Structure formats: C-alpha cells, structure tokens
Amino acid sequence: MKIRAYAVAAKGEILKPFEYEAGSLPEEQVEIQVSHCGICHSDLSMIDNEWGQTTYPLVAGHEVVGTVVAAGSRARRVKAGDRVGLGWMAGSCLACPQCLAGDHNLCAQADQTIVGRHGGFAERVRCHWLWAAPLPPQVDPAKAGPLFCGGITVFTPIVEFGIRPTDRVGVVGIGGLGHLAVQFLNKWGCEVFAFTSNDSKREQILKLGAHHVVNSKDAGQMSKLAAALDFLIVTVNVPLDWTALINCIAPKGRLHFVGAVLEAVPVQVFSLLTHQRSVSGSPVGNPRNIDFMLEFCARHGIAPQVEFFPMSRINDALDHLRAGKARYRIVLKADF
Q: Crossing angle of helices 178-188/150-160, nearest 10°?
C-alpha cells in the first residue's frame, strides 16, 4: 500500500508532499493511523543532516499519536482500534544483553523511527508492537505526542538515578524538554530550580511548578547555589558555562545531559574528585518507563504545553520552531 507523507528530498530544501510504498505488514509490527505528531528539535537535526546519518528523502516525525489500524500475526500488547503513541524508537532486537535486561532503548540493533526509515509526518507509520505504547484514557491524545520523545527523555533519568522526593533538582533550559522536566519533578516531590537565560519566562516557569527561577547568566545568583543541588539535568543543545553549573552540584550529586550538545564539554576533574560528583547522559527510555511515565501523567494531570498546526502547514511549523517561538512544543494535526 502507498502512504502519503511530507518529506524533504535534500538538505536545505522544504518539505513537500510525498508518497511511498510500504509493502506488506511484517508479522511483529503494527500500523498506526496518525492523528497527531509533535515536532522535536531532533527532527530539525535530521532534516538538516546535522548528525550525518540522514537518508533522503526523509519523512521525519517521531512523536506520534494515533490509532492502530492493522497488527501483524505475532503482534502483542496492542490491537486494532487501540490509541497508542510512538517515539524515537520503532524496534529493538529483543535478544541482546541490553534488551534482555529491559534496556531496549540501548539496543545496538534498534530501529529508530526516522533513521533509515520513514516516520510520523505521514498519514500512517509502522513499528514493532513493543514500541506502540497504549495511551491511558486520561491523557489527551491531541497533546500527548511530545511525551514520547521529549517527555520520556527527561522522565527516564528521574527513574534510573533514583531521584528522591527530598532532593533539590535543577533543570537547565525551559523549552520543549525542560518544561516537562519541571512538571515531572514538582509532582515527584522535589524542590525544583529552573535555570534560564530569559527572565521573561519567569512567571510561566513558576506556573509550571518550579520553586525557584535562576538566571544562568547572573553570576551572583549562580554563586548562591554552590554545592546546593543533588541533581542537575541539562536539556539544551548549546554550549554553556559548564564550570559554573558543575559548581552548583552537591557532594555525590550529578550533572546529567539529555540535550544533544554538539561541542565538547570541558570538565575539571578535580571539581569532580573533591565532591565525588558525576557527569552522565542518557537517551530516550525503555518501553516500561514509557508506560510508567504515561501512568504518572494520567495520575497527576501532566501534559505538554503545545501549539497546533495542521500538517499541511508543516513548513510554517518548522519555521516557527527554528525561530525559537514555540511555547513549548509544536503538534501537527494530520489533515490528509
């Protein structure tokens, strides 16, 4: 069968209507009728081939919400008619040490939704049944798309590193990822410090659940947080004053990256040794943590703050994101 989509044919070009032949549905895959698809900065990185792994023509889009319309004979967990979400990962081998340990998101043979295959800027998209996450009825499907990449990316380290309700946690960058991290951490019970260089966001950030807003360019504000934070999550992809941020971390605390910072990060090892600090990073999460995140959102009423565009205006939506105007995530509504 043919699937209608929007694709970019080469680096530097705009997205245009595109059709591709999907072939027969593999027995362990499901096919999702796309209703909504979020736009992530990673989509821009793939469209522009910033990471050197783009295959053109590219159908990007990896924050999908839709309805299962077909399921292969060996598909489990979901069935036709189920409302589901799909993120960065579309498949994993299920046999490597990482998969057997439950870390399917670390599988070296994983299928990534928009790497070497076509994603969710389309009327339909396919994935292995394990990565089609059932959407709880309390979660608004129109807004849920960004949870499946931006959301799980910041939720995973909260779970993986055992963040406690008594911890003092900082979030660097209050954008698509950061605004969700603030909400998660507030409901987790943490004291939340939001780091931003844009003072105009202060009231919005406090409404999201931050207890403190810190101007990351103000040396005085930064110095008051010396050795104060148990965990500091970096959601941005640009160079910052890493020494100043590391100095905010308490003994045995952690600086953790989820933003794809492309430049090398200078770290003074002595500042780690003397306080037994750690520096780490993580990608998106495994299927169990995606389900856990959705349950958490359903219980606490957490949702991305989104702006909607019809998918037919996808280039306008991408321009809006490139200009830094999105507050805080863009969702496309399929209108084929």
A: 40
- Which one, of 106, 95, 98, 16, lies nearest residue 57 by Cα? 16
- DSSP per-residue string spanning 228-282: -EEEEEE---S---HHHHHTTEEEEEEEEE-S---S-----HHHHHTTT-EEEE-
Which tens digit of pLDDT belongs to each residue from 202-223? 999 999 999 999 999 999 999 9
Taken in order 102, 105, 296, 125, is the CA torsion positive or negative? negative
How many structural domains are present in the chain? 2
> pLDDT tier at 198 (50, 70, 90 boundaries)?
confident
Place of tokens 């049944």: 129
* Residue located via tokens 């492309």: 262
Specify whether 188 is located in the same domain as 41: no
Can you tell me the distance from the alpha carbon of 132 to that of 218, in angstroms, rounded to the nearest whole number?
A: 44
Cα separation, 257 vs 247, whole angstroms: 16
Please give the residue range of the domain that contains residue 309. 2-149+285-333
What is the spatial distance between Cα 67 and Cα 61, in angstroms, rounded to a whole number?
16
Q: What one-letter code names the amino acid at 255? A: L
